[in-house]
Amino acid sequence: MSISLLLEMAADAGTGRTAVVCDELRLTTDDLNRLADGGAGVVAASGARHVAYVGTGGAMLPVLLFAAARAAVPLTPLNYRLSAEGLRALLDRLPDPLVVVDDEYRDAVGAGYRSIGSAEFLESAGTTDPVVEFADPDAVAVVLFTSGTTSKPKAVELTHANLTSYITGTVEFAAAEPQDAALICVPPYHIAGVSAALSNLYAGRKMVYLRHFDARQWVRLAADEGVTSATVVPTMLDRIVAVLEADNTTLPTLRTLAYGGSKVPLPLVRRALSLLPDVGFVNAYGLTETSSTIAVLTPADHRAALTATDETAARRLGSVGQPVPGIEIQIRAEDGTVLGPGQTGELYVRGEQVSGRYTDIGSVLDDQGWFPTRDVAHVDGEGYLFIGGRSDDTIIRGGENIAPAEIEDVLVEHPHVRDCAVVGVDDPEWGQIIVAVVVAQPGTHPDVEEVRGHVRAGLRGSRTPDRVVFRDELPTNATGKVLRRQLVDELNSTAKEPA
Description:
Blueprint lengths: L3 H10 L4 E5 L2 E4 H18 L3 E5 L5 H11 L4 E4 L5 H8 L5 E5 L4 H4 L4 E4 H8 L14 E6 L9 E5 H11 L10 E4 L6 H13 L2 E4 L5 H10 L4 E4 L1 H14 L8 E5 L5 H10 L4 E8 L4 E6 L1 H9 L3 H5 L6 E2 L4 E5 L12 E6 L6 E2 L3 E2 L7 E9 L5 E6 L4 E3 L2 E3 L1 H8 L5 E11 L3 E10 L7 H11 L8 E4 L13 H9 L7
Parallel strand pairs: 1-10, 3-4, 3-5, 5-6, 9-10, 9-11, 11-12, 12-13, 25-26
Antiparallel strand pairs: 1-2, 7-8, 13-14, 14-15, 16-17, 17-20, 18-19, 20-21, 22-23, 24-25
Helix pairs in contact: 1-2, 1-8, 2-3, 2-6, 9-10, 10-11
């Protein structure tokens, strides 16, 4: 099944319904369908074998997703925050692309590419003869580059079948109420942006785009458009909660708030749950290679864990829930042995939505179709999945493997710690030492030894940070992931004094 069929189904079911709101632009499902057909004509006339998009998204993302699909060529939204050199390096890896670019990024893209402005593309799509070609389900629909924070970005290939199996397996077609609206502020080059465009359209939900996140504008837009659902990353959730608390306001129409992209500190989750008691919170965990979400902690799971007196049940607030339909998971030891509940190893996943394929590398699935996520994880006795961070982040101190997440989980519960990241820094004696990078709560000045003692009281002594470094904020990417490699590089480049 081609992703273009998702739009055709939505247009047939929701004639005249508003599908997209972005700044002053409003598109019905019929408008979007016509622009996709005409956009496919623009792509076909260019002779390009790929469509690249450099811009902030909004309405352009769903238009290009379906235009490229109906021209039977892949789409790659690129990270517009990259340097000109970084952007061109990625463009040069795409085969004969048509580059659709927002005006403010034209200079970054530069000459030497077949390109067209975003506004010009929309205008041409409205007047060009339509082209509708249904791509082979196994053809590549979208190529997304990984963040590349520790190595050269990989080009992840997602087929039409990968994407549609995720959508049809997790979303009920046309199930949204007429007044339902989703507020989307995740970047277009992230899998969450792609899946939001597909899933909300398929559900029949109006998509309201906020192309540049600002917490106060997010709250205002949620009220003005009667937003009923939204997805945010941790840094966004933190700022939204701060605005709601400062302004003593609520989100009266909001029913569901999903968060993901990286781990959210539990104190922040508890604050949000208390502040918005009528909102259903969802923790969604997934990867680019899995076409988005593979596990969900549901609203009922959140409330049950928040009020649980049993320690095991309460701990599930820090889990990512249970696998979505169609997804199988395994936890494996280094020798490939499948581990049982409570045992920590690497997470492997399998299902129709899982690609596990990269341009120039090929498939990394094993012979039974399992994808190695490189995430350290375990499941409890009821099948709730806990993610302990990337295997690459493991600290090896004196020959002992230490997961940063277990220290961070204790550290962030200190009343004067707002956020933190634990990393391993080179050391001639131990190989690596544990360094906690801490963002203090506003107006507080935590003592280093008090912070170390807090960790020591919760974990055995070998987990106590050797050093504590205070920062005003942690470096993160657009989806809230802490840039650990940047922290390690910075700390390695400075003189290391004992705490």
